[in-house]
């Protein structure tokens, strides 16, 4: 082969290699640009024809909620107006809006959607709902659980030895030295109901009254604030806590952990669409995103417990701790919540 032909052969091989590399790059870029599984193109087009925005009312703190919905905006171009408040604050807001005849919320994400009138919640089954555990879905398809709120006590691992942890709530009565070092949130009505269901009303009431007498627990406001206080050592024990919030503080390096005793109350961080939403298409698309593997994987970074079996908990194996324990689903209506709040105040001497 002549020198000229050899050079031509080398150039041809180099050109082929470049072409293959370019094709591989294009394939990689195409894969990166592929639409996520939860994104319905037709629904997205319809949403953009509306206003291109969606109002999300949520009880999730801004540190988690804002970056979560940025993922949605980046994928869709739909702007999210994020309104954050407690369940009670958001209920008050939408009641005011309703009286004014102008409901602004499109998507609601809180833990008490079953307390709202059914007529306010859009009846719809998003495609991603098929991946949720059955117990994390409203049978009438008005709300869906995007994370699970398991209730269990927590403790500061520097102030309390794991070997000293009670195995039952009755065992707490053997620790008068913890008096004044225990906290509970003022709104733990689901936990209180689970105690009454598990022990029976008479024994449950007596046990809780004795816990208050022996431990003198501080009644705090805000579950995340309480978890942070336990992690900081302000309190040694949280008599009850949302496990995901204990994990949230633990994942940030604080000396806090949870342990499981019967009963375990469980309810959900729920999501639902406003039946009268002026931005229905965007709201439905946002609801589908909230239930997606992508969204639940993101929230698991903060210790949120997913309602999908294809998303692992963080840390791994959290749900294993609840195996063999008495799990009591507690979804209180608005009237029931008021009744249990009254009982809570009576027992905790508020």
Q: Could you walk me through the main structural features you see in this protein, from its secondary elements to its overall organization?
A:
This protein has 350 residues and is α/β, with parallel strands linked by helices. It folds into three domains: 1-34; 41-148 and 267-300, D-Maltodextrin-Binding Protein, domain 2 (3-Layer(aba) Sandwich); 151-266 and 327-347, Periplasmic binding protein-like II (D-Maltodextrin-Binding Protein, domain 2, 3-Layer(aba) Sandwich). 42% of the residues lie in helices and 17% in strands. The chain has helices at 3-33, 41-50, 62-76, 87-99, 189-199, 201-215, 223-232, 243-250, 280-290, 293-300, 334-347; strands at residues 53-58, 79-84, 107-110, 144-156, 182-185, 218-220, 237-242, 256-258, 264-273, 327-329. Strands 1, 2, 3, 4, 5, 6, 7, 8, 9 and 10 form a ten-stranded mixed sheet that branches. Strand 1, helix 3 (62-76) and strand 2 form a beta-alpha-beta unit. Helix 5 (189-199) packs across helix 6. The protein is globular and about 65 Å long. The relative contact order is 0.17.
Tags for this entry?
single chain, 350 residues, alpha/beta, D-Maltodextrin-Binding Protein, domain 2, 3 domains, 10-stranded mixed sheet, 17% strand, globular
Outline of the structure:
By secondary structure, the protein is an alpha/beta fold. Helix content is 42%, strand content 17%.
Total count of strands: 10
Backbone structural class = alpha/beta
CATH class category name of the largest domain:
Alpha Beta
- State the separation between the terminal residues, measured CA to CA: 98 Å
The biggest beta sheet is recorded as:
10 strands, mixed
